[in-house]
């Protein structure tokens, strides 16, 4: 039986789902409503990124830039200082603490909600979604045979779960191969030699944690270019002139990958002549990225992804200084070796794994035998290979369509999912990093908190 309350279901209780729910509870729809937050994990607000672990990894951004509320940029910093007055806005704090902050944010919003708004947390996994008629409502299938009828549904379930890369087809069931770098058993205290596929932020976290847990482990990291992320700055870049200059350089005409690169280089040179640095250019490009991405033809987007993405990523997605220093020490001690190249094959070698790989620019194939291989290569093209029942069901029924470049979902205004007929849904939305398909920059707190606030405002105005 349909509830007399307008039901808004949020699938996923990580950063995006928690912040969206908190926004809706603080500024709810005018009609009586029921907000249901569905999370498969044991705790809300933590997702994959903010779990409590023995290693206590650090945020890659200073506390003063991590507020979940764009209108209150120091909210998280104040929360941290209440826990420990010695903590400051320029410090890189433990991710576990950020999960505590998100949980408190939701609790406070739930306690302050008006009486005509019902808030429920449901523990379970959403595995199916059916649209009752052309505009909803939607019937959500949950684990243990449960069902939930909702007038509006927001998918806030992040990137698809890790899947085996093509090179892992022969070792997918091997005990020394780890597809998910976040699972508790990934590090292995008895491991003597470990290969990490990928050299970005996830690799850095795994390498630092593995070295701390096992002081004798020999670490190897392999990626196509062998580039490590740059190290983060504690200063906040707010160069309005840099943003205006960058937009002016690209004001008219088609945005191509080469033109974008030339404009960025020219902007960086101008900033350095005026006493600035490349961080200001990155900040300007980051703010302008959504509008520029939407002006790029599909062929130019593909060219950017093939040739420029890796260089953008290592400058845009940077390491906390302490993490960068730990990696540098591991390299100097010979405990971490970075390789540029491609995996050709991985086979069993009497319980270990024999990796055949070709160095970048070389023709000869090398071999490396390791005790463990951990895939840290990220979420690229996961959606096309996902086995997640909800995501495959959405694509199978045509309620959602994957971006041809493998970046995420095709979406319309406020993240409305676009179906196979090219129509934007009125009551079905996505909120999370797979907005990168249409916005490019959509993976960090700075962007996602704005998307969450805009979607909450739109949901509060939509008639049931």
Summary of the model, kept short:
This protein is of the alpha/beta class and 464 residues long.
Name the features.
seven-stranded mixed β-sheet, globular, 3 domains, 20% strand, FAD/NAD(P)-binding domain, 13 helices, alpha/beta, six-stranded mixed β-sheet, 464 residues
Describe this structure in words.
There is one protein chain. The longest helix is centred in the middle third of the chain and has 19 residues. The mean pLDDT is 92. With 464 residues, this protein is an alpha/beta fold. It has 3 domains: 200 residues, FAD/NAD(P)-binding domain (3-Layer(bba) Sandwich), CATH 3.50.50.60; 123 residues, 3-Layer(bba) Sandwich (FAD/NAD(P)-binding domain), CATH 3.50.50.60; 74 residues, no CATH class. 35% of the residues lie in helices and 20% in strands. 40% of the residues are buried.
Low-confidence stretches: none
- What's the N-to-C terminus distance? 16 Å
| Residues in helices, as a percent range | 25-40%
The coarse silhouette is globular
Q: Proportion of β residues? A: 15-25%
Please give the order of strands in the largest beta sheet.
Answer: 8-14-9-10-11-12-13
CATH topology of the largest domain: FAD/NAD(P)-binding domain
Based on DSSP secondary structure assignment, what is the total number of beta strands? 16
